[in-house]
Amino acid sequence: MEKAKNPFKAVTDAVVDKAKNIDAVEIVKQAVKLPIVRVNRSNFLRKELRKYYPEKVVRKAIKENPASAGVSRECVNTIARQVINYETNKVTALSFAAGIPGGFAMAATVPADITQYFAFMIRTIQKLAYLYGFGDFELNEDEVSDDTMNQIMIFLGVMFGVQGANAGVKKVAAAAASKVSKSLAQKALTKTTIFPIVKKIAQAVGIKMTKQIFAESVSKVVPVVGGVVTGGLSYATFKPCAKNLEIVLKTCT
């Protein structure tokens, strides 16, 4: 007598097949195309800083950076925590909604879920970077320059705890703080050992995300309950990643 197939295993296999072997670079390229991903540096800094400082300080912070404008580190840290909480709550709520479909319907949503997750990661990267003195990432929906992609991958590496990424951010921070032009700073970074490790960082991020999405995908097989579990997993994984980046930016800027 033929043994009955396990429907749960069939569904999880279908979902995991969609989630495995993530190409982090390709996911970032897709995420950048989403309207939600781009953060206007000037608008963001103005919105956040005008709660605490007069317009003169805000304008200088936009023209240069918050620190040189006299914005206290305590204020920057406070806004950073607010940013992390806000973006975590947003991605958690969307993950819950995405987790409600059950069964094989989940397999079709996995690529979009991953792209959306990365989009919120990149949003958080931009906001924290702008607070701690970095320049505009110059993201556009058509394509991402190699320099911008390298920088994003280094920041993602920090968020996921990839070895070597912290040193990369410190180098980028040093270049951002220097008085040389952006193009010269990028050229200098390219000659260092930082950007050559980007490929390794991208691979490591892909592996870590594969493991995470595997856990989320399996939890999402059961409708409603899956949504609750998935939202919880997103909260539990997204916030620590954002905090990792915040901690490193505090120490290198």
Detailed description of the structure:
With 253 residues, the chain is mainly α. It has one domain. Helices cover 72% and strands 0% of the residues. Helix 5 runs antiparallel to helix 6. The radius of gyration is 20 Å and the shape is globular. The protein starts with 6 loop residues before the first helix and ends with a helix.
Tell me how many strands there are.
0
Principal-axis shape equals: globular
Q: Give the percentage of residues in beta strands.
A: under 5%
Give the count of helical stretches: 11
Q: What sequence of helices (H) and strands (E) makes up the elements?
A: HHHHHHHHHHH
Look at the helices and sheets and give the structural class. Answer: mainly alpha
Summarize the main sheet: none
The figure for the number of domains is: 1
Mean pLDDT: 74
- Rg calculated over all Cα atoms: 20 Å
Helix content: over 70%
Taking pLDDT < 50 over at least 5 consecutive residues as the criterion, the unreliable ranges are: 99-110, 217-232
End-to-end gap? 68 Å
